């Protein structure tokens, strides 16, 4: 059995090195996405360990107790200690995964009482509008010109999601996080962007004829660059250009 455990551990480490349990290295560019990724990674590793153990026991039993003659092997049943073990162990594994999933969900869905930035996101057929509440800046997408939302990194950003027509979905794949935009419901989520860069966002809920064109860009910049962008937009009247204007 020690050899079997060592083999299982070696296989998991090998798969991790091959990128099979790290989703190609994409841990997400938001803290919430990384929390979700860590939960997924832990679940996959647990599943690999259980799978290796089960298949190892199957092959070990098939080889160890293969038929060697005409004699009937020893017949045993009602091994209560073993039955209790293989009943309690799966329950324990599920309970542990449940606790981690519940904790991660609470952390991801938690909203701050004092976010650093509030952006009202309005989805409509078939584009987006972003309104920076305290800065009084509005970015509106056009049919052939997706809007650019400029965000600072390492700050808590509150998105207030709204729709006046049909259900949309606010989704930035690199954030590993999305939320539906539902008419009559103000969904609020907090996102902490941790990496600078340019990311593509899209509507992930089919919403009509030009659903595929309902995209936007996110430009994550440093706090200083964000303040410069805010100053530029405010000096021009608070209507941001669609190229974002980030430094």
Task: Provide a short characterization of the protein structure.
By secondary structure, this protein is α+β, with helices and mostly antiparallel strands. It has helices spanning 2-17, 31-64, 80-109, 223-235, and strands at residues 117-124, 127-132, 137-140, 148-152, 156-163, 168-172, 177-181, 187-192, 197-203, 215-221. Helix content is 38%, strand content 25%.
Notes on the structure:
This protein is an alpha+beta fold. It folds into two domains: 2-109, no CATH class; 117-235, Sandwich (Immunoglobulin-like). Helix content is 38%, strand content 25%. It has four helices and ten strands, in the order αααββββββββββα. It has helices spanning 2-17, 31-64, 80-109, 223-235, and strands spanning 117-124, 127-132, 137-140, 148-152, 156-163, 168-172, 177-181, 187-192, 197-203, 215-221. It has a five-stranded mixed beta sheet. A five-stranded mixed beta sheet has the order 4-10-9-6-7. It is elongated, with a radius of gyration of 26 Å. The model is unreliable at 243-247 (pLDDT under 50).
């Amino acid at each position: 059995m020690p050899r079997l455990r060592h083999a299982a551990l070696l296989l998991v480490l090998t798969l991790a090195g091959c990128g099979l349990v790290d989703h190609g290295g994409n841990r997400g560019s938001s803290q919430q996405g990384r929390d979700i990724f860590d939960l997924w990674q832990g679940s996959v590793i647990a599943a690999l360990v259980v799978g290796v153990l089960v298949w190892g026991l199957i092959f070990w039993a098939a080889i160890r107790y293969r038929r060697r003659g005409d004699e009937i092997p020893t017949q045993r049943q009602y091994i209560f200690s073993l039955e209790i073990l293989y009943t309690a162990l799966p329950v324990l594994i599920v309970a542990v995964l449940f606790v981690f999933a519940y904790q991660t969900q609470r952390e991801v869905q938690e909203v701050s009482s004092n976010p650093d930035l509030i952006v009202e996101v309005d989805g409509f057929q078939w584009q987006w509008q972003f309104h920076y509440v305290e800065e009084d800046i509005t970015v509106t997408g056009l049919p052939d010109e997706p809007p650019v939302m400029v965000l600072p990194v390492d700050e808590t950003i509150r998105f207030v999601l709204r729709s006046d027509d049909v259900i949309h979905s606010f989704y930035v794949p690199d954030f590993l996080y999305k939320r539906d935009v539902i008419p009559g419901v103000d969904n609020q989520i907090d996102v902490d962007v941790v990496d600078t860069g340019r990311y593509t966002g899209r509507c992930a809920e089919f919403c009509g004829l030009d659903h595929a064109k309902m995209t936007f860009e996110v430009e994550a910049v440093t706090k200083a660059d964000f303040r410069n962008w805010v100053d530029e937009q405010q000096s021009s009247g608070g209507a941001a250009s669609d190229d974002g204007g980030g430094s």
